[in-house]
Amino acid sequence: MATKRTGKPRGRPRKAKAPKPPRSRGRPPRPLADRPDRYLLAFVQAALECPRLSHMSERGLTVMFAGIRFGRLILEPENIEAIERGEPFRVGMEERESRAAKNHFGWRHNNAFHPRGDDIARVLRGARNASPMDRDRHWLARMTRAWLICMDRLTEDAWLARELAAFAGESSYFSRVMEPLLERPEGTTVSLFELLPLLTPGRT
Question: Model-level pTM greater than 0.90?
Fold first, then answer.
């Protein structure tokens, strides 16, 4: 005896599967503690929190550090004299290295150093606003506090800076780079150009 066709496919119906979460494109972000530019990032964050630099905006500071890190000093007499007086000075970038876009009206692409400064700010904001349990947030907070102690020569808090760097896994870097700055004689200053190679190991 034949039964009427129902129009449904033969066999058992398939079980419904839970939808898979969408995968993010590209490589997963590298942990902050493994990034080659992590010392520069921690120093920039310390500069952002430094009371002496509170008159500068986050954007202004990150673009300034991007210029120092990625730019080339313009060797003109007036520019050299400005550096010696501690005044603002000019840096340049070769066109092939620049990420500025011609005929582009957005802030990010109208200056050679804006994209790089913007990228620095984005990484720092991501770490600062991460979950309280996030490793990047902990690493940045510890190294930032350690840098602030060294920048202000708070020798009475040297033990705290040393402990914070140890918790961040940076004891060797603290002993080699940060502690000598903390112990420098009263009245001495260190220029960013002197400090830069220590903030970006392996920079060419």
Answer: no
